[in-house]
User: Which sequence fits this backbone?
């Protein structure tokens, strides 16, 4: 397979993924709505494309890493979208956290074009994207996954093939649902600790070492305690992911009541001006409430 790869979207995650593809020796075309974000990658050898179609035209694999269904639809099927330009046999990889319904629609459109789609969202955030330590949750047929593996390996520590197209998107929403609920409950618990008079450092040490402990709790509690909201994962994207999770779960007749409660906290934080901060900032409206 050709080593020509395109990546669409150079946000918090896409920039790190693109950098690792360059390090692995792939010939890389990049597209981003705001060209300024591509300057470092261009310096390192990437070619900037002015449209998704231009980025995808000569690529064997085209990867998208964007915010939501609407942004994904625009780069694949909008004006100057990538899908219109790809050649037969190209592999499309949608790594955004999007709805399985949109993945199904995109897969149908890809099939009509004579190309294959993998839905391959990731776990991890900015640090893992930059260090090539993402975990890909992949949906698609065996042969396409095998063909795409060298590209995925360049950006990851592990690739988990979960089943047919759509499987990765479903697994990612389940993952982020559980993360969002834990973060919301941690925010409430930490505010309780702060107001109760307990030593915050000691209390968090107990939680991290005990049954509630997890890598997520450790990382997010540190940011909350330090009030450091530099972006690893945007708050507004977790709010969106919880909404997508609720809609997808409802298709399986599951009512995510805890997600609705958690999402209300993220929505309040967005209204208070934290939408473009790290998701750990969900604690701030709770700190100011009485």
Assistant:
């Amino acid at each position: 397979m050709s080593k020509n790869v395109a990546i669409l979207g150079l946000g918090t995650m896409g920039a790190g993924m693109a950098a690792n593809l360059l390090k692995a020796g792939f010939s890389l075309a990049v597209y981003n709505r705001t060209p300024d974000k591509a300057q470092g990658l261009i310096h390192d050898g990437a070619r900037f494309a002015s449209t998704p179609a231009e980025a995808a035209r000569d690529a064997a694999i085209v990867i998208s890493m964007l915010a939501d269904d609407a942004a994904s639809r625009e780069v694949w099927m909008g004006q100057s979208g990538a899908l219109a330009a790809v050649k037969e046999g190209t592999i499309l990889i949608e790594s955004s956290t999007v709805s399985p319904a949109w993945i199904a629609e995109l897969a149908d459109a890809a099939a009509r074009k004579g190309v294959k789609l993998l839905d391959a969202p990731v776990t991890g955030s900015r640090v893992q994207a930059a260090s090539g330590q993402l975990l890909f949750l992949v949906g698609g047929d065996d042969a396409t996954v095998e063909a795409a593996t060298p590209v995925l390996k360049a950006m990851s520590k592990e690739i988990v093939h979960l089943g047919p197209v759509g499987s990765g998107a479903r697994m990612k929403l389940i993952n982020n649902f559980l993360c969002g609920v834990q973060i919301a409950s941690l925010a409430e618990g930490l505010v309780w600790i702060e107001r109760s008079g307990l030593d915050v450092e000691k209390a968090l040490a107990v939680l991290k070492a005990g049954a509630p402990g997890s890598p997520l709790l450790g990382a997010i509690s540190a940011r909350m305690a330090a009030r450091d909201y530099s972006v690893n994962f945007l708050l507004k994207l977790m709010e969106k992911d919880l909404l997508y999770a609720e809609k997808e779960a409802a298709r399986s007749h599951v009512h995510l009541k805890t997600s609705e409660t958690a999402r209300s906290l993220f929505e309040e934080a967005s209204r208070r001006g934290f939408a473009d901060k790290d998701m750990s900032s969900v604690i701030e409206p709770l700190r100011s409430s009485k």
Observations:
- Residues 167-196 form the longest helix (30 residues).
